[in-house]
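@channel sequence for tomorrow's demo:
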Amino acid sequence: MRGGAQRLVFAAVAALPLAASYAFAGPQLKTCTNDENSADVRIESCTGVIEYQPPKPKNDKKKNKSETEPEISSKDKAAAYFSRGKAYRSKNNNDLALRDFDDSIKLNSGNTDAYFNRALVFRDRGDSERAARDLEQTLKSDKKNTVAITTLSHIYYSKRDYERAIATLNIAINLNQNSAPAYFNRGMAYRAKGEPDRAIPDYDRAIKLNGNDAVAYHNRGLAYRDIRDYERAIQDFDQAIKINPEFILALNDRGIAFVSKGSVERAIQDFDQAILLDPRDGFAYNNRGLAYRNRGEIDRAIKDYDQAILLNGNYVLAYYNRGNAFYDKRDYDRAIQNYDQAIKLDSQ
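structure tokens (generated this afternoon):
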């Protein structure tokens, strides 16, 4: 009923004299571009602006310029496409959002926000290449857009382009030297690049800026473990678990650090706790299996590998570890079967 009433109003307005007719488009544009309005209201108003056509004169007599009905400018129409695209995106209709951002950029190629929002659509659709291009275009005009910088660094990281991720995060840090997330993300990129010694100072800075970040302590612990400084790794995992007692990944990683330093009993306690918190954590079963095998309890290790594989039939490492356990028992046929499956899954 509401939609029908509005269509009747539109038809009535279109029949008014020219000056009153154009008065329709201005308020519609304001409604269209006001982000405080609901998505549906913005979509309807923007569509009205986009589809608006000035009425034709009733006779062929030439009119003065002051009497001629003005058309919607390209800039205003671009703004309408852009606002409607944002509204569609807020409703998770990325196909229509993408179409509108495309049209907005065609009409106004200088609209930095349109490039940025189109990049977010591409990112959400998994098209990292086009997302990166639009974010790079955004930053040409808006070099201090920290959200675009951060988003671009995430895309580079996901593509394993760690050099460019680090370079982008350098820009973010230069803009704001108190940005804990920027230091944390650069630390992640350094560690992923195989440089844990460069990651650690960045995690230090992130923790100094936000001492309650359990994930930062956990990641610094991983970097210490990478360089075989197990004592410091365990200290960081301790702190992460203190902040978040249900941090299952930190429990697993502390357990691995304990195994690495020969404290197998202590490691098993951590894996037991991780399994208690989440009985479907195949990672913890696999890790506990390693600890049991390290302690010479091959049958108990195999049972844990069985459970890990039951929870995740594509768990390559669990098949490989179970193969090792069967090899220990001199059950070579079953060892080979598990190695075969690990190789098959790893090649997919």
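heads up for whoever presents: The longest helix spans residues 74-90.
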